[in-house]
Amino acid sequence: MTSADLDSHRNIDARADGVGEGFLSWFAERVRMSGCQVDLTPLNELRGWAFDEATGNLAHESGRFFVVEGLHIRTTYGPVREWSQPIINQPEIGILGLLVKTVDGVPYCLVQAKMEPGNLNTMQLSPTVQATRSNYTRIHRGGGTKYLEYFTRPQAGRVLVDVLQSEQGSWFLRKRNRNMVVQVDDTVPAADGHYWLSLHEIRQLLRVDGLVNMDTRTVLSCLPDSFLAGPGGALAEEGMAAAIVRSVSGEGRPHHSAAAVLSWFTSAKCRHELAVQRVPLRGLPGWRRTPEEITHDDGRHFSIVGVTVRTNHREVAEWNQPLLYPQGRGLVAFVVKSIGGVAHLLVHARFQAGLLDIMEMGPTVQCNPENYPGARPEFLDYVLRAPAERIVYDTVLAEEGGRFYHSQNRYLLLEAGEDFPLEVPDDFCWVTAHQLTTLLRHGYYINVEARSLLACLHSLW
């Protein structure tokens, strides 16, 4: 157990009002029992992984899991028009599945305390099932995935959500996961490492730094409308609080119709020229490879590092793998403005080279500020200078610990000041939370960072 694990548990006690003592004791015990060691390991020493002699791409000897390769991008979007970068190519589709059950009108979700090698605090709350295809088909020759049958055999429960969604388009090449919610009526015992937690409690835990993992957040954002009304009480029903309630529930009139939002988004995709080409990792311009890692020449953005993992809480007790290591903490923020008494989120039509359809709707600001010493992304400085009284939500949350090493973003919901304009640049649009939730019934509209913030917004009422 690390000091980060201890700090995480203290944060639960301090920030998660209304979370039962049963869960707090259970999670503390899981943390205490977590025997996990993650050591940085030179890339040249990763067992089972090797650089291809011709391309320099880094791949597993089985041909499965994922490959680190190169990407070259040319675009008319943004201040940087051409660059090269490493990217993770993981073409298989994984399952992110959440079992839900209603007891006396209260929805419960079956979550698990899961260790991932890239987690800063080791143990986080993940969905019932969180598994790549390589893992649940047991390419690693380890143990099976608990509860998998509920998501591969729909007759085991009622499917409420089943949609393909993207993951981080700046670091993954066309990565998709099947986001699923399955409702059960029969009693399903919680296996070792799993816990039935009320939906209200999970949303309270979204206020705890680094606890609810990215995969849980994306599935929570996809929950149907019937799960959005919660016990409430966190916000008074006046001002921005009431505007957020109307935004989530679909009450009131949106600034733009659904058809107008889709037309804006289609226009944004057609306005820019984008060319993305897969290239060899060997000799990638602007990047250098050492025996230990692959890094950018200026030390910014990210690097590719290797780790050796030993644990008693996964299907396999020991393994090696590469991870993408971001430099510094990122910032992910929605500017929120009440328009006609309904809270609207300032959505950005965001280009990310690894997305299947190149563009998805993202937050107002999504970047690592340290990567922009010169030209700054639109609205970044507005968010950074926001007074504390306008911040509605502010929590540091982790990204995918199975592929990224110590990747964290500060997630913010920020109330716009009176001076914030209603008219915004062409690549931005005011959209209600309910409109975004409706779009999540389909894949490839809302990026994973915006989905995380949408789940956080739902936690406010």
Describe the structure.
- It holds the Pfam family Hexose_dehydrat.
- Its EC number is 4.2.1.159.
- It is an enzyme of class 4 (lyase).
- It is a single chain.
- With 461 residues, this protein is of the alpha+beta class.
- It has a domain at 239-274 and 327-458: EvaA sugar 2,3-dehydratase subunit (Nucleoside Triphosphate Pyrophosphohydrolase, Alpha-Beta Complex).
- Helix content is 21%, strand content 34%.
- The chain has eleven helices and 24 strands.
- The chain has helices at residues 3-15, 21-33, 133-136, 149-152, 199-205, 214-221, 239-249, 258-271, 380-384, 433-439, 448-458; strands spanning 36-41, 49-51, 58-60, 67-75, 82-89, 94-103, 106-115, 123-126, 129-131, 158-166, 176-183, 194-198, 274-279, 287-289, 294-296, 302-311, 318-326, 330-339, 342-351, 359-362, 365-367, 391-398, 408-415, 428-432.
- The strands form four sheets. Strands 6, 7, 8, 9, 10, 11 and 12 form a seven-stranded mixed sheet that branches. Strands 18, 19, 20, 21, 22, 23 and 24 form a seven-stranded mixed sheet that branches. Strands 1, 14, 15, 16 and 17 form a five-stranded antiparallel sheet that branches.
- Helix 1 packs antiparallel against helix 2 and helix 7 (239-249) packs parallel to helix 10.
- The longest helix has 14 residues, at 258-271.
